[in-house]
Amino acid sequence: MTHRHDDHSDHGHGMAEDLPRLNAQLGRRRALQWFAGAGTAALVAGCGGGSGSSSSSTTSSAAATTTTTTATPTPTATPTPTATATPTPTATTTGCVADPSETAGPYPGDGTNTASGSTSNVLTSSGIVRSDIRKSFITSTTDAGGVLVTLTLTVVNVNATCAPLAGYAVYLWHADRQGHYSLYTAAAESYLRGVQVTDANGQVTFTTYFPPAYDGRWPHFHFEVFSSLSNALSGRYAILTSQMCMPAAICNTVFANTSLYPTAASIFSRLSLSTDNVFGDNTAAQIAQQTPTFSGSVAAGYTAAAVIGIAR
């Protein structure tokens, strides 16, 4: 616009004067065209820079995405072993409870009561430390008979994430297949009683027979735990006296053999674990721990296992 105004104001001079002006005007126009071209180029360059910035941003985003994608599997993979490993200590920690104290009953043979006017303390007898308790060992070698059970007990400290307690003594006893107890109702016998000391895994193993049902009582094992063998053999130093209840399904299977267990099936049919005078008031968790797991058969014998929880 300014250039046109200047053209109007200079109109009417001769060619000689107009030529230099025209050349100057053309020069200015070329300059303007150059600047316009430069501006366009700058604008294009600016857009290109924007595109480059956008491209760079996209690349960064892609890189970030790639990094995120790459990083995500790493933590995902890491929790997997952690999650796998975590249940193990948790299961161990929550896998035991303190066994409740139960009555030793009238036939413990641990020096706490009398039988036939004399104190019965089998714990002070030579030979009481034994794994196979099927036979008498004091004045006879009578075999009690019954369905074979190999019982492994694991003694653990419930206050230390169920850590095994080594060097503890366990005294196990129970009735014979007719419901009699050695030293008492089978006074001449000393079978189905024995003491074992826990190994590094807190375990002891007894070879014995399946206990019967008798009037008023669900089939059970009695046991006492001592902090050492010397305390066990001294008698009256038990840190826990309790009992284990037999699984109902195994009871029904075993007691079906009436030649070995002549009265157990009929008695057992009238019993209930929930109304038993020992187990009836225990919690579900206590009953679960007090019930050994069994595998095997009547013909081949059973393998059983249970945990004994001690609060130390």
UniProtKB/TrEMBL annotation:
Any matching Pfam family: Dioxygenase_C
Protein name as annotated: Dioxygenase
Ranges annotated as biased composition (Polar residues): 111-121
Oxidoreductase listed as a keyword: yes
Lineage: Bacteria, Pseudomonadati, Pseudomonadota, Alphaproteobacteria, Sphingomonadales
Gene Ontology molecular function: ferric iron binding; oxidoreductase activity, acting on single donors with incorporation of molecular oxygen, incorporation of two atoms of oxygen
Listed Low complexity bias regions: 53-94
Domain Intradiol ring-cleavage dioxygenases: 146-216
Location of the region described as Disordered in the Swiss-Prot/TrEMBL record: 47-121
Keywords recorded for this protein, A-Z: Dioxygenase, Oxidoreductase
